[in-house]
Design a protein that fits this description.
Elements: E1 3-15, E2 21-29, E3 32-38, H1 40-43, E4 47-52, H2 60-66, E5 77-82, E6 94-95, E7 105-111, E8 114-118, H3 120-124, E9 161-164, E10 167-179, E11 184-188, E12 198-203
Antiparallel strand pairs: 1-2, 1-12, 2-11, 3-4, 3-6, 4-5, 7-10, 7-12, 8-9, 10-11
Length: 205
């Protein structure tokens, strides 16, 4: 099972022995603690729940839930991953970057940067209105949003609203660097989300 939780640190580049420069995103990957195991017999499906990070002010319910994995465990994030077969790990095990190898293809999921409330020009790349021949001057307004019939605005109409802060998944990223001592992964390419954002890394065994 190649899966781990991590934190995005930032981007840099590495130079190979052949002189080729590779842009990479550095991730603090793990260690992630197994906090729960679900099986077909008990829960109807196979899954592994991982805890990552150092949280605070945990509720009594969460504290009691993760107590089986460690007395002083206070995870910041709990996330469940479904697996096809019953997992070989047990509660309390720590998953690290040692399960990955350079050249492995991985799928990374993160939360994109939040841009706040945005207009249609920024949000959907709409064209601006003309700014000549007696135009009022509000060149970034939406314009017409409906027609004479039917007298309503259709669902899904592109209009101003909240932009960003969405779950984004990028597939087929390649691991280009591994630091097993410090649990660091270097992934070739860009990873969604801001610095210090939580990401999930899933590989193909």
């Amino acid at each position: 099972m190649q899966v781990i939780l991590g934190t995005k640190i930032g981007m840099t580049q590495i130079i190979g022995e052949d002189g080729v420069v590779t842009p990479v995103t550095i991730l603090q990957a793990g260690p992630a603690t197994v906090t729960q195991i679900k099986t077909v017999e008990t829960d109807g499906y196979n899954a592994v729940q991982l805890g990552y990070g150092q949280g605070k002010n945990l509720s009594k319910a969460v504290s009691g839930h993760v107590k089986k994995a460690g007395e002083n465990l206070t995870p910041k994030v709990l996330k469940e991953f479904r697996v096809e077969e019953a997992p070989e790990v047990k509660i309390g095990d720590n998953l690290t970057v040692e399960q990955f190898n350079i050249g492995d293809k991985v799928t990374i999921t993160g939360t994109s940067k939040g841009k706040g409330f945005a207009g249609t020009v920024k949000r959907y790349n709409f064209n601006e209105s003309r700014n000549t021949h007696g135009f009022k001057g509000n060149i970034r307004r939406v314009g017409s949003i409906g027609s004479m019939y039917p007298q309503k605005v259709w669902k899904g109409k592109k209009m101003p609203g909240r932009m960003g802060h969405d779950q984004v998944t990028v597939k087929n990223l390649v691991i280009a660097y591994i630091d097993k001592e410090n649990n660091i992964l270097g992934v070739k390419g860009a990873v969604p989300g801001p610095r210090k954002g939580i990401v999930t890394v899933e590989g193909k065994e």
